[in-house]
Amino acid sequence: MAQLSARRVALTGLRRWRMEARFADAIISNLLAETKLSIPDRGFALELFYGVLRNLTLLDFWIGCLRTSQVDVDLRDLLRLGLYQLFLLKTAEHAAVYETVELASKRQRPTINGMLRTAGRRRNELLSRAGAQPLFVRTSHPQFLIRRWKENFGAEAAEALCEWDNEPPPVYGRINRLKIDPEKFLSLYPESGPIERRPDFVEFQSVPTRALALGHCYIQDPSTLIACELLDPKPAEKVLDACAAPGGKTAYIAQLMKNRGTIVACDRDAARLPVLKDNIARLGIGIVHSFRHDWTRGRVSKEIASVAPFDRILVDAPCTNTGVMRRRVDVRWRLRPEDLIRMPDEQFEITRTATKLLKPGGVLVYSTCSIEPEENGHLVERLLNHFPQMRLGDETSSLPFRDHFDGAFAARLINTA
Ligand SMILES: C[S@@+](CC[C@H](N)C(=O)[O-])C[C@H]1O[C@@H](n2cnc3c(N)ncnc32)[C@H](O)[C@@H]1O
C-alpha cells in the first residue's frame, strides 16, 4: 500500500465506500493508516475523497450531460474524481485529465480521456447548466431533506444550510482548563487562533497532534457545549452521561465539576468505550467510571444502580446528525425518511429509562446534533407527557445558517417530584 498516490487513495476510498456498508470516515482513515503519504498529500487525498462525496449528484449530473448511455460504476468513480478536480477544485485541466487517466485501466483510458477533455472544452456551458439546476442537484442533497428544511426553516435558510454542508469544516479545539489555561495555551500553540466570544475555543489550520497528545485540548465544535451548559453540573455531584462515547461532553462536564464528584459514563458501543477511556485519561480526568450499557435493553447493572439517584443526567442521544452534515459527509446518503420515525422512538426509550435514575429536584438534559423537530422539540413534548413530574426549563439550539456553528439542540428538564 505504501506507494499509493493521494489520488489513488481517494479513488480506492470511493470504491470501498460504494461497496462496503461502512462510514466514510472509517474507510478513509483506515486507508491513510496503511499508506505513507506526506502530510500535504494526506490533506489532498481527504479533499478529493470528501469533495467527491459532498458533490455526488452534481458530478453525476455532469456525467449525464457528457454521456447519455450507461456508465458503469468503476468508470463513474473515475469520472467523478476527474470532474471534481476540473470544475470544483479548479485543478489545471491538463493535470486533472492526465492524472485521472493514469488511475484508469487500459480499457477505460480512452473513454476517460475523451470525456474529461470534452468536459474541459464545454466548461462554461456545463457550469452554467449546473447553476440552473434545482437545489438538490446544485448542492447534492436528498430531495426529502431539502423539502423538510424548506418547510421548517424557509427556502433561504434551506439553501444556506445546503451550502454550509458543502464547506470543508474548520478544526476547532476546546482548551482543557484542567491542564492548561487559555492564555498559556495560546502562547504554547501560536498556530491556534482564538474564536470570538468563545474563550475556551481555538481554531487550527490542521489537526494539532501535540496539543491533543498532551491533553491540552479536545477537537470539538462550540455547539456541542450548549448541552453541558444547560446541565450546569457542580463539583462533588453525581452525574450520569448516558450516551457518552467518545467522551467529548463527559470531559467538559468533568471540567465544569473541577474534576470533583462522580461521573458515570455509559455507552452501548463496545468499540467506542476504549476511545472514551483513552480521551478521559489524556485529558487528566479522574472522576469518570465508564460502563457498557444499552438503555433500550435489559436491567440497569448493579454498578450503575449503586451510584443512582443522580443529581444530573445528560442524554446526548444518537440521532440523524442533520446538524453536523458538513463534518459527517456521508450522512446525507445514508438517511432515509423512515429514520425520522425510527430515531425518535429510540431516543424516547433511552431517555425514558435513564430518567428513572434522576433524583427528585434533579436535572436531565436531553440533547442531539440534529435540527429536525421530531428529534428535538417534539421529543421533549413526548417526554413531558410521559413524565408529569418533569418540568421544562430552558431549551436552546444552534442552527448552522443562523449561528455559524454546527447544529445542536438541548432541553433542560427538572424533576419536580
Ligand atoms: C451523539 S453520540 C454521543 C457523543 C458523546 N456524548 C460526546 O460528546 O462525545 C451518541 C452515542 O450514543 C450511543 N448509543 C446509541 N444507542 C444507545 C443505547 N441504546 N444505549 C446506550 N448508548 C447508545 C452511541 O454508541 C453513541 O456513542
Explain the overall architecture.
By secondary structure, the protein is an alpha/beta fold. The protein folds into two domains: 6-138, Orthogonal Bundle (N-utilizing Substance Protein B Homolog, Chain A), CATH 1.10.940; 222-415, Rossmann fold (3-Layer(aba) Sandwich). It has 21 helices and eleven strands. The strands form two sheets. The protein has a seven-stranded mixed β-sheet, with helices on both faces. A hairpin with a 2-residue loop joins strand 2 (193-195) and strand 3. The longest helix is centred in the last third of the chain and has 17 residues, at 339-355. It is globular and about 70 Å long. The model has no long low-confidence stretch (mean pLDDT 96). The site of S-adenosylmethionine has 20 residues, from helix 15 and strand 6. S-adenosylmethionine binds next to helix 15 and strand 6.
